[in-house]
Design brief:
With 159 residues, the protein is an alpha/beta fold. The protein is 26% helix and 25% strand. It has helices at residues 8-17, 34-41, 74-80, 91-98, 143-150; strands at 23-26, 49-56, 61-67, 86-88, 115-119, 128-131, 137-141, 153-155. The strands form two sheets. A five-stranded mixed sheet has the order 4-2-3-5-8. A three-stranded antiparallel sheet has the order 1-7-6.
């Protein structure tokens, strides 16, 4: 399973074409980390979401989405996937499976090829901000749109 390379522009066009109310925010400096994004925006870490790619014991990719103040609990994620174990994907695997570089992976746009699990805390917010497809781009979107577009499971996967 491999993916072509994508950009924030291709993601923006796709979301616009299906009528998703998403806002793309471009910055001069990188926004690859929660701290960098929160600083650029002047918001709390929990308003930022992380889209982290894992690989299960069958070699299949799983996208875990958690708020920026939390970490993914790998045991909980594995249980949610009905897998014995999961591990963080390498930067090369992230690029191959998602089409995006580490630090730029958006929460949507790969739903046809990657199973997505959203931590239940993410749904407490009306709008969240995550990777926007490039290292200096963020995407503001509704968690309900993420859920709908990815056909994701909602589980407690954070610690």
């Amino acid at each position: 399973m491999s993916c072509e390379s994508f950009s924030s522009e291709s993601l923006k066009k796709r979301l616009e074409s299906i009528g998703v109310n998403a806002v793309f925010l471009r910055f001069e400096e990188h926004t690859m980390t929660v701290d960098a994004a929160a600083k650029q925006l002047g918001v709390s870490r929990e308003r930022i979401i992380k889209s982290l790619l894992f690989v299960d014991d069958a070699g299949l990719p799983v996208l875990a989405i958690v708020t920026g103040d939390k970490r993914v609990d790998e045991a909980k994620l594995a249980a949610a996937c009905n897998a014995k174990n999961v591990r963080r994907a390498t930067p090369e695997e992230v690029k191959r499976f998602t089409g995006y570089n580490v630090g730029a992976v958006p929460p949507v746009g790969h739903e046809r090829t990657i199973r997505t699990i959203i931590d239940e805390k993410v749904l407490q917010f009306d709008r969240v901000i995550g990777g926007g497809g490039d290292v200096n781009m963020l995407l503001e979107i509704s968690p309900s749109d993420i859920r709908r577009l990815t056909n994701s499971q909602i589980k407690n996967i954070s610690k």
